[in-house]
Structure formats: structure tokens, C-alpha cells
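Chapter summary example.
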Amino acid sequence: MKRRIVITGAGCITPLGTTPSAMWNALMEGRSGVGPLTLFDANGFPVRIAAEVRNWDLSEVCEHADDLRRHARQTHFAIGSALTAARSAGVSDLTIDRNRVGVYTGCGEIYPNFQQFCRCMAAGTSEQSFEISDFLQTAQMSCPPDEQMILEPGSAVGLIAGLLDARGPNINYTAACVSSSKAICDAADAIRYGDADIMLAGGAHSMIHPFGLTGFHRLSTLSTFQGPPTEAARPFDRERDGFVVGEGGTMLVVEELQHALRRGAEIWGELRGWATTHDAYRITDLEPEGRAAARCVGLALHQAELNPEDIDYINAHGSGTVVNDKTETLAIKRSLGNWAYHVPISSTKSMTGHLTTACGAIEALICVMVLRHGVAPPTINYTTPDPACDLDYVPNTARPILCKHVMNNSFGFGGQNVVLIFSRFER
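The structure predicted for these 427 residues follows.
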């Protein structure tokens, strides 16, 4: 008999709040986390808005915060989310075999200190040439010896394991927008195949940095909306013009059912199906017909032993780019058939912004919260329907729903697709 996988805790650090309940309340109010960019001086830059995490410090949840000050902002988000999740699930219980507790994260690239980088560049640059030796000499004097380790995307997963004494499976995924979703998939597989009993899985990221925003802007994926920042993220709306970069982290406690029941854990929901596919098309574009994304939905449904009509809510990838939202709509129609027109769908990126590698984890948590509360979050800023996006996107106002099974789509840069299906727990 296959091992059932349940969610027994969660933690999050997001632009909408730094606990699951605070984030949920903001979603129910249709509150946007987007505002003026404050993490660096963006004067003269075409994009000057972001969904930032404000008024939070790692010291609120971690007694070792002072020892971790030099680590990246996103590493703090990952650690904070993981510690909060572990406490919510009682994972610190000393009776739990630490060899069977693992950590999988989806954390993306970490950028160097921009001012430090500019000093090194200036040292090596003259009117006639660039001297790498001068660049390196300045770097040797200004970069701490452990800088490279701090900039590793996988630094958080090791730090979390150390803080929680989690000696089981441990890996970080860097796979664009599906990174944290893939971490959850593979955490479930690690449990199902008997390699672990408890996995902390999710991710964290912050690309609110001169390098990150420049790269996305050059790809023409960022919104350049000039109105109120809270109205910039407009998934599925005809006037959408790109996404707003967000930041944050979310970690779920993924656990084998019998193990959870034996220790009396609260069960938030069941992870019933998951799948991953690839478009094999272009690194910068989604396959325009959504075939691989639709197949991913079908595979997840098959594993969950469900039919399209069983899905009661979809948290869409819904990035807000012209191509993504159109392609995702096609994929949902292709995979669910006529039921696509009856299931409520929302893009919570309209409120959280796009958390890049961490987006799948925060949206997985939102799906679990939908099951717990029976309410579909809205897609805010939806004012002008797009004929190419003609499904029910729960416009602007949260909606009570009857739900037993919900689906989370992550369709990322490079054509990577992950679908997760969560169900209300029943013995």
C-alpha cells in the first residue's frame, strides 16, 4: 500500500504577511503587496515597483540571527519560513528520528553586493581598457573569504538542516519558477519511497536587485505600468503587460500519514498528486499551445486518481505576461475539457507579486489554506476581459466555494512545468 503524504505545518515570509494567517487575511481582503521599490535606488530605471517584504527581521524567529547577518536576504526568508513551519508542526520533538527528517528547497541565484561589485569594476576600468588584474586585486581586498559560500543558492538548505538537526535527504533546486514546487514533489517522493518520514520543502528568493530587475526588464517580462503600484499586477486582464517582482519564502512540513497520526500532528491537508513535464521548446518562451503543461495536469490527476471534474479550485501560475496567461488558459482547457469553464481559477500573484523560484511554495500553501477555509482568493486588478483568457478568474473579490480537491500550477521560464494536487484530509 502506497504511503500517503500529508501537510502538517507551514511557515511563510511574504509581502502580504509573515505568518500563514496574516497572508491569508490579506488575500481575503484583496490587498496588494506591491509598492514603491525601496531596496535600492531605482531612479531612472524603467521599473520602480516591487512586492517587498517589509518590517520583518530574522531575529523574530531565530535566536542565532546575529550569526547569520551576512547571509543573503532570501536565505533569511528560507530560514525564517523553515523554523516557523517546524514549530507549527512540532518537528522539534526530540522523539523524532532526525535521520528521517530532510530538507528540500527551491532557492535561486543570490546576487553579490552591488556597491562592492561596482568598486571592483571601477578599479579595473580605464578609458582605454578593462584590466582583470586590477579588478581581482580590489576583489581580494574587499571580498570576505566565505563570500562564495554565502552566495551559493544552496546555502539555505544546509543552514536549515543544521538548525533543525535534520540529517535526512537534503538538496536545493534551481529551476526557475518551478524550483520550490519541484522541491515539494521530490520531498513527497522521498517519503513515498521510504527515504524519510518528514520533509521540510519549499523555497525562498529575492530578485529585487539591480541585476535581477535588469535581466527581467531586458526579457520584456516586467510590468511598466505607470499608475498606482497596487494596480500593476493584472493577470489574465486584457491590459496586462508583465509581472511585478516579489520576494519571500515559504516552507511546508510534508509528512507520511501514519507517522503524523502516531505523533498526534494536526493535518492541514493531503498532497495527493504531483507531476512534472517540460515543453522542450525554447528557453525564453512557453510552447504556445500548452501541450506539455496540459500533460502535466493529466499526469497529476492520474496519480491522484481523480477526474477533471473533481478539481474544485486552481491556483494558476498566472504571471501576468501576455503569453503566459494565454498559454496557461489553453493548457487548462486542453487538460480539463469543458470543466475548465466551471472551476474557479485565481492568480494570487496579482497580490504577492512573482516570487520567482519561491512562487510554487507560497501558492501551494495558499491551496492548502483554500481547503481549510473553503474560500477562493481573488485575482485583483481584473477589469477588462481578454477573449484569449475566457475562464473564471475569480475577479477582484474572494468567493466561498465547496472544495475537496485543489490544484496548483507552476509553469516556468525554460518550459518547466509542475502541478500539485492537494485534497481535504479524510482517513
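To summarize the output: The radius of gyration is 21 Å.
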